[in-house]
Amino acid sequence: MLKPSRAKLLADLLPQALGPAAAKQGFAGAEIMARWATIVGPEIAARATPLKLAAPRPQGPDAPPGQSTLHLRVEGAFALEIQHRVPEIQERVNAHLGWACVGSVKLRQGSGPAARAPHRPPAPPPPATEAETARVRSATARVEEAELAAALDRLGMAALAKSRTRAR
Q1: What is the spatial distance between Cα 135 and Cα 130, in angstroms, rounded to a whole number?
Q2: Selection from 36, 57, 58, 32 nearest residue 45 by Cα
Q3: How far is it, in rounded angstroms, from Cα 46 to Cα 43?
Q4: Residue 109: in which H helix or E strand, if any?
Q5: Helix axis angle, 146-167 relative to 130-140, nearest 10°?
Q6: Are the beta carbons of 56 and 66 closer than 8 angstroms?
Q7: Residue 1 CB contacts under 8 Å (≥ 6 apart), including other chains
Q8: I want to staple 49 with a disulfide (CB 3.0 to 4.6 A). Which of 30, 33, 114, 141 is the partner?
């Protein structure tokens, strides 16, 4: 019998998918790009996006790695604010990576992804009717494991909510 595979978080798969493109821009493993909003917070992420991480040339085979320069694209109106928050950005990125990787941050003014308005989640769907709830519960009633039954109930309710949203 095959063991069911566990669902994976998109955030865990993103670095692998972005790897080749990110490597061209100096992002080893795409960690900073993939988790930018988590690293610096939604407020900074809405106004600044990472462009590249420029590592210094190695000084020798036994020399420790030097600190890199993180290049950010910032919407013009927020450049001064982001400039004042550079120490916070460095601290957060370095804490996330686990070592003092970023030694400096360079800002490039421009429009683009950082200039977009912050993402607003869609309005929640209307609540399920009693008939829909009963239909989902009857479909999962034979499941013996409580956690699995609860997860299937949530999945069924989400599927019904999505179909109600499309019908509008």
Answers
A1: 9
A2: 36
A3: 5
A4: strand 102-109
A5: 140
A6: yes
A7: none
A8: 114
Assessment of whether the complete model's pTM goes beyond 0.90: no
The encoded tokens of residue 48 equal 């600044």
Residue ranges of domains in the chain: 12-57+65-115, 130-167
**Could you tell me how many residues make up the chain?**
168
* Token reading at 102: 């970023």
Q: Categorize the per-residue pLDDT at 3 as very low, low, confident or very high, splitting at 50, 70 and 90.
A: low
Residue-wise pLDDT tens digits, 89-113: 999 998 888 888 888 999 998 865 5
What fold is seen in the domain 12-57+65-115? GMP Synthetase; Chain A, domain 3 (3.30.300)
Structure tokens given for 80: 């001064």
> Edge to edge, what strands does the sheet with 68-74 contain?
48-54, 68-74, 102-109
